Amino acid sequence: MTVLLFLGSVAALMLGHGLRIRRWSRFIGIYEEPPTGALMRALSLGFALNFVLPFKLGDLCRAWYAGRRMKNGVGLSLATVVVDRFLDVLAVAVLFAALWATGVRRELVWDSARFYLLAAVGVLVLLGLVRVFSTQVKRAAMAFASVFNDRLRLKCERFFWSLINAFRELRHVRPALVLGETALMWLCYIVSYALLGLLLTRLGAAYDLVEIMLLLFSRSSLDLSALRAAWSGGSAAREQLILALYLLLPPVILFSAARLFRFRSGERAAPDDAHYLKILPQIDERDQLSFLDEYFSARQPDIVRSFIALNRDVSIIADCSSGSNAATILCMDARGMFYRKYAFGADGAKLAEQVRWLRAHEGDLPLCEILRDETAPDYCCYDMRYASEAVGMFQFVHSHPAAAGERVLLAVLDAMERGLYAKTDRPADPAALERYIETKVTANLERLQASRELHELMSCDTLLINHREYLGFPVLRALFEPAHLREVFAPDRCCEIHGDLTIENIICTGADGGFYLIDPNTGNVHDSKFLDYAKLLQSLHGGYEFMMKTSAVSVSKNSVDFICTRSSAYDALFGALRRCLDERFTPAEVRSIFHHELVHWLRLLPYKLRKDPGLAPMFYAGFIMVANDVYRWFEQA
Asked: Do 466 and 562 contact (CB within 8 A), yes or no?
């Protein structure tokens, strides 16, 4: 009978541990396939170490062991262990409260019941405070993580992020199943404790269920004082051995079974049973750290939440965003790889206009293939087909002969002329031209002159740019007078245009001149095809893409210095574009195109002042160099 009681208590304890592993798997299964065998071994090691270590420190080993074998790592493992133990605190509080309410050994039970009830209430209050003061908590977490190097900072922030999500995403686990498994688990534990109490009572130790509960879960048991008291008290050596075997044998059996047999993972806990949620969609650790820094800074919580909701179903391979408020990412899901472009708020509304333009002209031009698009009041998103053979034109012209780049450039211009410009040609709207000059030139100049970063440079009659002298804005001011621009732009004709025809928005598909276009811009006011040609000039004449790759600029009085890298490939392509302009247009029209390039630089500069004010002087220097060329080629007597 004694042997049967012992075996029964051990079997019930093991069954409880098995239910705990299944419940733990559900928390992990929100994000990845739970490694059941590894979880069994991890729990066995953790519970065995809890027998000899204070304050349940074995759970740290449990989280570390499991996390090393999980796709999402130790951070998620530790977060789910915290959730598991949080539920234990609630369950034990209920058990002691029930024992106290029944009046069974009330004087012994009261201290532990009060302790666990206060602990449970404290945890719930803490969760509430974290929710109410989420901004302060996030910034405190970031401040703590920031004391470490980037590698450890990422691990800290990943753990905090995983912990937040482990509680937040519990809604994706069916509550009835978790409550049922928790109830069955604790029923197994109670049966096991009761059988152990009967066994020890038969051996003369006078233990009952309450004594076992107090031995294992009283407040003093957290630092092992209760177990030490049982071990060093009046119990016989045989009873002490039984207690040790009772606590250590189930972990040993579970660990051995996990080593000997292959265990299948339990039912998936993903909400639609089709895929797992991702802790972080970014694959690259630098992108992960950048996102987590943004999240814990709490500067734009709504945008961060929208980003996660939008990209929970994908893995982000690379961030391909460039100089706009919309983000572009290369990502992958079960259907394959694709590019995703998205924006929020007012930028989302602007992106929706881009989608409408692409849909409207997909039969007129070679354009990116839109796989899916979604527009909501607070965001817009669309996915573009990924082609492994396609490369941006910047990369193409620097990896192919100059003739291949020229073929693509001429193919683009010919396609735009035939497929878009000629079909939609119309006279310019004088009122629209006035708005163009007012909003794109005059208003932007006022913003530049009011800026702290550029005010002094704009007052200099000459600028030294990389130790070469250029005329400053006061000398060139006449180029931007409304009357002068009205005279230059008045003969323009208008039509449907791309609006942002830079080199980086041309995607090459072969050396024979194959291409497609991406990222049109519809907010141009004065829709002359000359704006598209001027955008190409901003790339090939002004060197915009090279400036985007420069990360430092030095300013001293009227001197601006930065690394000015410009390739011979760009020089050759600019020469081809200039020949094309001279062949296709009159001198007055070429003059208008170059003046539109100046307007493009004026539209760019306020954006750079907002996004990266430290680099704004470099882009201003680029604007001045282009303005000097325009003045010398077209205006100087």
From this structure: yes
* Chain mean position to CA 239: 56
CA distances from 417 to 130, 341, 425 (A): 59, 27, 10
From CA 243, how far away is CA 175, in angstroms rounded?
35
Measure the CA–CA gap between 230 and 387, rounded to whole angstroms: 70
> Tokens 């309410």 map to which residue?
101
Query: Got the DSSP string for 329-373?
Result: EEEEETTEEEEEEEEEHHHHHHHHHHHHHHHHTTTTS-BPPEEEE
Structural domains present in the chain? 2-260 (no CATH), 300-385 (3.30.200.20), 391-635 (3.90.1200)
Taking alpha carbons only, the member of 45, 50, 36 closest to residue 65 is 45
Helix axes 285-297, 134-145, angle to 10 degrees: 140
Closest CA to 309 of 381, 369, 385, 373: 381
Query: Between residues 510 and 138, which one has the greater pLDDT?
Result: 138
List the strands of the sheet with 336-344, edge to edge. Answer: 315-319, 327-333, 336-344, 379-385, 370-376
Q: Which of 38, 50, 47 is nearest to 14 (CA)?
A: 47
Q: Element (H or E) spanning 379, and its range?
A: strand 379-385
- What is the Cα–Cα distance from 548 to 545, expressed in whole angstroms? 5
Report the distance separating Cα 348 and Cα 279, nearest Å.
Answer: 25
Task: Give the mean pLDDT of the chain.
Answer: 86
In 3D space, the residue among 241, 218, 174 whose CA is nearest the CA of residue 29 turns out to be 174
Residue range 7-34, pLDDT digits in tens: 899 999 999 999 999 999 988 888 888 9
Rounded Cα distance, 92 and 116, in Å: 7
Q: How far apart are CA 407 and CA 172, in angstroms?
A: 54
Question: Token match 């790889």: residue?
Answer: 337
Residue 81 to residues 75, 165, 173, 489: CA-CA distances in angstroms?
10, 13, 16, 68
pLDDT (tens digit per residue) in 325-336: 788 889 888 788
- Find out whether 596 and 534 touch, Cβ atoms under 8 Å: yes
**What letter does residue 512 receive in the DSSP assignment?**
T
Region of poorest pLDDT, from 46-50, 207-211, 363-367, 533-537: 207-211
Residue the block writes with tokens 């069955």: 184
Question: In the numeric block, which tokens belong to residue 74?
Answer: 């130790």
* pTM listed for this prediction: 0.73
**Spatial CA neighbour of 423 closest among 361, 356, 482, 372:** 361
